[in-house]
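Please go through the protein record below and explain what the tokens say about the fold. Record follows.
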Amino acid sequence: MKLEIQNLPNDWQKWAKANKKQHLRTLEKSNNRKVFAALPQLHDAVFEKVDCLTCAGCCKNYSPRFKVPDIKRISKVLKMKESTFIDTYLNLDKDGDYVLKRQPCTFLGADNMCTIYEDRPSDCRRFPYTDEDVFVKRTQISLKNIEFCPAAYLVVEQLQTLVPK
């Protein structure tokens, strides 16, 4: 299946908010094997067009969850005790997950580059989850991501061509 990815409109964030109900319906109808199989290809096609470094919306608007392996790895790279890393950078959220104390991300450079890119949290590696079934199974998170991630927006727009009306 060859997919033609539209050019990203300048006002895509306005469209993302305006089409939230339509995107929800698309995600809810996308919970099937055909769509799950197509997601990696959609993801790859979109990321050929989207340069994350021009946006960094995820780093500016989102805090990844820091799991224990992430904390161990990053604190080691930063030459900090795990407890010091947690005290310095993280809080527990309402779900009991470690998240950043502030946004934008502490590790986001002025050039939109991640200063711990090779050791970043697994949530950052996977974001925006557009190549995983999570994208259609966790609709509320995806709807939120669609509003600040142009890649997520483009994937949901392309999904609309794959799901029944």
About this structure: The chain has two domains: 12-59+127-159, 63-124. Residues 12-59+127-159 form one domain.
